[in-house]
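Example record for the data management plan.
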Amino acid sequence: MNYPTIPAAEYTARVNNLRCEMEKQNVDIVIGFSNLLEIGIVRYYCGFAPVNESSAIIIGLTDKVTVCSGQASYDYCLVQNKLPDSEIAILPEIGEVSGFEYDTEGQLDFSELFAQIKTKNPNAKRIGFIGRLIFPAIIMDKLRNTFPDAEVVDFDDVHYEQRIRKSAAEIEILKTNWDMVTKTFEAVVPKISVGMTERHIEGMFEAEMMSLGAESYVQSFAPMVATGEKNSYISMCRNTLRQIKESEIINLAAGVSYEGYNGIICSPLVLGEIPQKIKDAVMCAYDALNYASAKMKAGTPCDVVLNAYTDYLTKRGYIDYCPYGSLHSTGMLECEAPTFTVSNKRVIEENMAICIDAYFKGMEWGSFRVEDCYLITKDGAKRMTTYNDTAIPRIFGGK
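Corresponding structural encoding:
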């Protein structure tokens, strides 16, 4: 299996691209923050993702970039930071979540660090921040106190706009992820048997993906194994000790993370005799996904794809069981901004990586999800996670 990486020069290019946007918007400094919910913001610009801590990055128009680590991950940051000619600062505000206090030589707090930055940027008038849902109040307060006359502006949209079109290096990494998660499903699903618990199956997925070279499961969630009428109804869940039974729906959702990028598959399964009503619903979802993805071409507004999906389900009588038709970017998060919606009519472009999610919820026998990853090429959308394309027709296609 191929194990590509992001070259150091690409991190520099990402910083320079951000600086170009900063100049256009008259922003003097940008501060990005990452935690386990959105670990990719800082990693995108320098390659560093901490262990058991948060992180931050400070990018000025001309100054050296400052990568911010907690004490516990400092040595790891020295190894993982791929941004040449950058500085590393140790900050207690992003240290271990337990609140453990370190007495570390050279440690600053953010008030001191911002004061140092202000000496280099005394006339800063606009400061951008990235991480609107997670940016800590304690750091924001110290930023505003140090730069009381500066306007603080949300720079999330600029950041995620950078991430939506994948470079050649990113595409190679994503291909590795997609191959890993496909192989994981191919290896694990045939071993699932009646009587296993949801947590047992979760462990099987994790063991397989790690053996293939993944650094972890997908950052958004651990493998989810939602079984039976009741548990499968829950869209996002933690697995239980419930034992699976014959002829009931099993909703499998698992993904791998490699080099900070993610690949995901969601797939239904039934062991033993499959009720016809389950076969019909699963094949409808699979066919709807194929019908919609065929329209997912560069230059096409996303509402064309989403409306094709809902129209298909409406004609076949399943629309009342479909809470949404999801079309979203994927990369350093399984589900990344910006979103694709009927109302925003965002145009699909070449080199985007997109997931289509067919979610059927609340039937009398349960719920399930079919989800795959696609790469937008000059010839259209190519399904990159291939397990469902063979498994679903084989398992559910017979009458």
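Summary line stored alongside the record: The mean pLDDT is 94.
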